[in-house]
Design a protein that fits this description.
The structure holds two protein chains of two kinds. By secondary structure, chain A is an all-beta fold. In chain A, 0% of the residues lie in helices and 53% in strands. Chain A contains no helices and eleven strands. In chain A, the strands form two sheets. In chain A, strands 2, 4, 5, 6, 9, 10 and 11 form a seven-stranded mixed β-sheet that branches. A four-stranded antiparallel β-sheet of chain A has the order 1-3-8-7, with no helix packed on it. In chain A, strand 7 and strand 8 form a beta hairpin. Chain B is mainly β. In chain B, strands 2, 4, 5, 9, 10 and 11 form a six-stranded mixed β-sheet that branches. The chains are: A mainly beta, B mainly beta. Chains A and B meet through strand 4, strand 5, strand 9 and strand 10 of A and strand 4, strand 5, strand 9 and strand 10 of B.
Chain lengths: 114, 110
């Protein structure tokens, strides 16, 4: 069974641009959650989608958004990039929503904003 | 706001030693996750628990809901156990997403 796939693996953008990251969950998993990891703040929850509905959203500005498609694949978008958005972005999939099930993480997308 | 505190922040031990990592949180939770992150970023879920104790191989996780405390134990530690161990809590009611501790950086020397 294939694991959680995140693309791209690395991304370099400049301030003001926007970026879209993709996450393909394990087959049969309906929950996809997104996280930001930085050396200073550690891991922080961004949002969770379950069956195409956003269930939870973390304390991030509106520039961070996401969506989930009918095949459970999810995308997150960051508009008007800032230097502080440089981070490792991780997604995780699960069979249950609201983090009540075992989480399976992707390898992440390393975003650098110049 | 739920605060999650892990201790110690850094731990270096010799191969074979018994390891304990602690996690304390400030408000009621529905469940708690223990995660392992190796250099390079990959995160693996070790346990999810809401009460009592779970064991998998050399790893044991316990939680005391009344005391708002969980521990992760590693028996007969091995250099391959070297990683960052992260505690994450599911706030009560599941209305918010995971809140993470800062992690414990564990190094097991041969």
């Amino acid at each position: 069974k294939a694991g959680v796939t995140q693309t791209p693996r690395y991304l370099i953008k400049t301030r003001g641009q926007q970026v879209t990251l993709s996450c393909s969950p394990i087959s049969g998993h309906r929950s996809v959650s997104w996280y930001q990891q930085t050396p200073g703040q550690g891991l922080q929850f961004l949002f969770e989608y379950f069956s195409e509905t956003q269930r939870n959203k973390g304390n991030f500005p509106g520039r961070f958004s996401g969506r989930q498609f009918s095949n459970s694949r999810s995308e997150m978008n960051v508009s008007t990039l800032e230097l502080g958005d440089s981070a490792l972005y991780l997604c995780a999939s699960s069979t249950r929503d609201r983090s009540y099930g075992k989480l399976f993480f992707g390898s992440g997308t390393q975003l650098s904003v110049l | 706001k739920n605060e999650v505190e892990q201790s110690p922040q850094n731990l270096t031990a010799q191969e074979g030693e018994f390891i304990t990592i602690n996690c304390s949180y400030s408000v009621g939770i529905s469940a708690l996750h223990w995660l392992q992150q190796h250099p390079g970023g990959g995160i693996v879920s070790l346990f999810m628990l809401s009460s009592g104790k779970k064991k998998h191989g050399r790893l044991i996780a316990t939680i005391n809901i009344q005391e708002k405390h969980s521990s992760l134990h590693i028996t007969a530690s091995h250099p391959r156990d070297s990683a960052v161990y992260i505690c994450a809590v599911v706030p009560g009611g599941g209305a918010d997403g995971l809140t993470f501790g800062k992690g414990t950086h564990l190094i097991i020397q041969p």
